[in-house]
Amino acid sequence: MPQLIASVEGAEAKHVYPLKDRTTLGRRPYNDIVFDSMLVSGEHCVFELRGLADVTIEDLGSTNGTYINGHMIKSRYLLQDKDIITIGNFGIQFLASSTDEQPDTREPTNLMSLDALGLPGTSGALQARLQMLSGSSAGLEVPLVKAVTTFGQPGVAVVSISHRRDGYYVAHMDGSTSPTLNGQRLGAEAVLLAHHDVLNLAGTEMKFFLKGR
C-alpha cells in the first residue's frame, strides 16, 4: 500500500494513504490533504492512484510550485519509492509500499526517523547538521533529521535541504535574494552538500557538517 509521510518544521508526521483515484492537496479546507500555509496554493497539486500501487503527482498551476527531489515538476510525474516532495515549507516522502498492517487511526502517528526509513547515511555514524555562524544564533547547531528541512525567510530567501539516497541536497526554494553555497549562487537545481560547506541566506551564514567525518 503506497503512503505519503508529511512533516513540517519538526512537527509530528502525518501519514496519508492515497487510496482514492484522486487525492487533492492544497490550502483550502475541501482538499483531501490540507496544508494551512500561505506558501501552499488553494488547490496546489493532485495525486492519482493507478492500479494498486502506482501514484502520480501533478501541479495544479500553484504559485510556488511543486518540487520532486529538489526539481520543480512541469507535468504529471510518476512517483518512485522514497521520492521527496517539497511543497512550500512542507516535506513529503513517498513510500511505494508499507507494512501489511493497516494503520491505527485511533492515535496520531509519530514522525518516523530517517533510520527507520532505511535511507543511506543514517545509521548513526553519519548524521548531518547545520551550525549557525552569524547573527544572534551564532553557535547554534540544528540537526537535519527530516526528509526535507527548509531554512530562511519567505519572500527574502528560503532553501530546502533534502535527504536522498546518496546524500543531502540543497536548493533555492523562494525569495528575491539568491542564497549562496561557498560563495556561489544557488538556483532551483539541487546541489549535493559536502562536509564544511557554507550556506549564506541573505547575510546569515551556516556551515554544513556530517558527523563522523
From TrEMBL:
Pfam family, any one: FHA
Positions of the FHA domain: 23-73
UniProt protein name: FHA domain-containing protein
InterPro entries, sorted: Cell_Proc_Reg/RNA_Proc, FHA_dom, SMAD_FHA_dom_sf
SUPFAM superfamilies for this protein: SMAD/FHA domain (SSF49879)
